[in-house]
User: Fold this.
Amino acid sequence: MAKNEEGRRDFIGMALGGFTALGGIGALYAMKRTWDPLPSVKAAGFTTIDLKDAKDNVLVVEKWRGKPIFILKQSKAMMDKVKDEDKKRLISMDGGHYLVCVGLCTHLGCIPGYNPAEDSFLCACHGGTYDSSGEVTKAPPPRGLDIPPFRIDGTKLVLGETGPEYEKMLADGITLKV
Ligand code: FES
Assistant:
């Protein structure tokens, strides 16, 4: 088995294991179903993901430098719900709006689960929640989900490179450097 594939299976197994704590086979099925990956290329610390086939409100989980990365395309209904100030956390590209964040709770690092029916993330470890922009809606997480360095290249997102949109997020205090 290729090393990358092995790593991906380990990661999926780990995330599913964490999610089991929430209970509910239906929920597990819903989460697994959303994990059809988008085309991506990994090389020397960079991960390039083509978002042109991303679907509204379907969570995609990628891996970058050993960390889970959540990618969530926002539907119009989701955009209507997200507060204006939290829209600054979203990446706008090719006519769509995306949450792209490290999928580790900012409290103590568990992997939150996504509930598409409520457009929200729940961290089962201590009950913290985040909205679809990755902003905290219930403590204890001290801040929103961190955003990895990125550069926009047409319909593609290059994780690990720093583009002007990411620089602005850093300067505006939207995310910490990861
Ligand atoms: S680790 Fe997520 S709420 Fe504590």
In short: Residues 3-20 form the longest helix (18 residues). The longest strand covers residues 67-73. The chain has four helices and twelve strands. The helical segments are 3-20, 25-33, 76-81, 164-171.
